[in-house]
Amino acid sequence: MKAKQKINPAVLSIIMLGIGLQIAFSQSVILNLIVTLVSLAYLIYCRVSLKVLFFTLLVALPLAFGSWWSFLVFGTGDRLHNAWIYGTRVYSYLTLGAAITLTVPVKELLLSLSLHLKLSPTFVYGLLAAFNLFERIRFQFKHIQYSAQMRGKTYYPWQPALYLRIIIVALNWSGDLAEAMTSQGFSEGYERTMTFNDRLPFWQWVLCLTLILAYFWAAFILRPW
Amino acid sequence: MQTVDRNKKSWSLRDVIFLAIIAIFFGIIYQVWSYAYYGLAATPLKPYANDLTLGVWIMAGPLAGILLQKAGATVVGELLAAAVEMLLFSSWGASTLLSGFIQGIGNELGFAATGYKNWGRTGLLLSTIGATIITFIWDWFQSGYSEYNFGLLATLLIIRFISIGFFAGILVYWIKQLVEKTGLIK
After folding, report:
1. Is residue A116 part of a domain?
2. Is position A190 within any domain?
3. Cα–Cα distance, A140 to A130 (Å, whole number)
4. Number of domains in chain A
5. Total domain count for chain B?
6. From A4, A93, A144, B128, which residue has the greatest number of CB atoms within 10 Å?
7. ipTM score
8. Does B185 score more than 70 pLDDT?
9. How many A-B residue pairs are in contact by the CB < 8 A criterion?
10. Dist CA A138 CA B27 (whole Å)
11. Chain B residues inside the 8 Å CB shell of A20
12. What is the pLDDT of residues B136-169, one digit of tens each?
């Protein structure tokens, strides 16, 4: 069976930013709903688990509801319209972001950005190295708190001591990792042999440009409700 | 300073990993912090929740700035923290990345105004002012602040400056002092 054709992560990122930026300035409930529905359709097409989707939508509900309600209470002008604009906007941003984060693994995204948008390999591999430490960093965060509790202290986000511990860990680990990577042959600023390759057919650039321009036309010239 | 390559302009692998690890820690802190935010954000008090808690989301940028002390560090630091947040946790989706960029620019402008020479009190003060103004303008459009009544707006601006001033200004300054005491930075 032929594998499903997905949009290339680099193109997807440009679509997300190109439309995301415009959403901030558009004033349309209908367009917000369209963006949300199209993103959801793409997510379903990519076979993202419905359960994950459901929870993603659920978690944002309080935010959307808070926005919606605040315009009814503190708003000026057409309160109802505003309430719906900013309530649904939460969802267009959420699903637009999810269309990348739930369909593309971080590694693939970073490599694709380096391949097609010339993101520097120092950033790509540096970020990957740090992402691979994610579980350890999470554990280390707990560790910092436990060791503080041993001394009868609790760290809160407004205490400098917490951040000092974090900085020390980051300094040590980044030094070790960078050294390890360099000794394994990573050289900064030099050409790399890429084994990773992802397809980016020309029509996807056309799609990207069409979507961004279509949104612009609809949001700022057509201006639906 | 140990964190930095002698050539202050370019980004070394170590700088990138260093900032990314800090960004992931921040991601975890944001997650804890967002419980405080959620409590308020589900009510009409949401704009208050935004502005009251904003400082914590802003501080990754200036912290990266004072640790690496080079042009662009603040924007990159904040952008990384936002990217990590979006990829791993966020319920704001695409707007996380956009806001992160805007916040980074706001802080960066403050340091740029000193010609990237002052990373102490003056630099941090200007950076918090820059962040307050730029993020407020952004929310004017993105979060629809243009539609709120004047009384609310004035209160929000003051709350926002206090939050950013404390977390991204005073707290970052304290952290800087602690780091200097340990001798990690000359």
Report:
1. no
2. no
3. 13
4. 2
5. 1
6. A93
7. 0.86
8. no
9. 196
10. 10
11. 94-95, 97-98
12. 999 898 888 888 888 889 999 999 999 999 999 9
